[in-house]
Amino acid sequence: MSTLKFSPFSRAASGALLASMVAMALGGCVAYAPSGLTPGRSEAEVRAQMGEPTGRHALPEGRSRLEYARGPAGRHTYMLDFDAAGRLQAWSQVLTEANFARVQPGWTAEQLRSELGRPTQEQVFPLGQVRVWSYRFDSWDCSWFQVTVALSDARVTQTGLGPDPRCNAPDNHRD
User: Fold this and answer.
1) Domains of the chain: total
2) Which structural domain range is residue 53 located in?
3) pTM of the model
4) Residue 163 contacts by C-beta under 8 Å, 6 or more apart in sequence?
5) Is the pLDDT of residue 97 over 80?
6) pLDDT > 70 fraction of the chain, expressed in percent and rounded
7) CATH number at residue 36
């Protein structure tokens, strides 16, 4: 007869997840995803349901975008677009391979943040005069999207998928 063994990290993560779920069930909780939000909602109504955004981005013609980076490993980022009057127009989960394919050399770092949100991880390489932004996403092959941005002009120089280092962790913990 074999027994299951759990690492302390896994127990701690499970405990934290359970505590979060209980807290959300008991009181004024914020939603993980905007799935219940319909167009026309005010920004105040959206914030009441979703909580404080992790970013705010200006769009043309007085429109705006609220960023909600979610998940323990940053696998989901929701962008909610508002018209100039502050009414919700649409929302989407932006960490997808289709959106990654749109990112091109020459994009500004500001444009990248407005489209994909904050990265899961940022590394600066002074000798190469670049920073690398890495985005986790739901991937069957345990990869993450990486964008190289020049320090000199804050423009994208290259993009690609790379192996997510969390997949090589001793307990293969992928949260």
Assistant:
1) 2
2) 31-93
3) 0.79
4) 142, 143, 144
5) yes
6) 79
7) 3.30.1450.10
